[in-house]
Specification:
Largest sheet: none
Structural class: mainly alpha
Number of strands: 0
Distance between the termini: 68 Å
Length: 83
């Protein structure tokens, strides 16, 4: 008897069929703009700045915060130009 995934026409979600852990495809959509190379570079730069090796999660958080800061600054500049 076929499994419920096969009956629905869906692929089974097993580790063998899914994306590799830590790969861009395995990350939430909000972080898929972060390439493995960008994260590795952030880890290298910020590990040197902190004097310790930072984790991938820390690098992602730093990059997300930098992006949010840039968005706020851009929004503020757009508002400034409207006045």
């Amino acid at each position: 008897m076929p499994s419920s995934a096969q009956l629905a026409g869906l692929h089974a979600t097993t580790r063998q069929a899914g994306p590799e852990p830590g790969s861009v495809a395995a990350r939430p959509l909000s972080t898929q703009w972060l390439s493995d190379e960008r994260i590795a570079e952030a880890r290298r730069v910020w590990s040197q700045a902190y004097g310790r090796v930072i984790s991938e999660d820390e690098a992602i958080e730093i990059l997300m915060n930098v992006r949010r800061l840039a968005e706020v600054l851009l929004h503020a500049e757009e508002e400034k130009r409207k006045t």
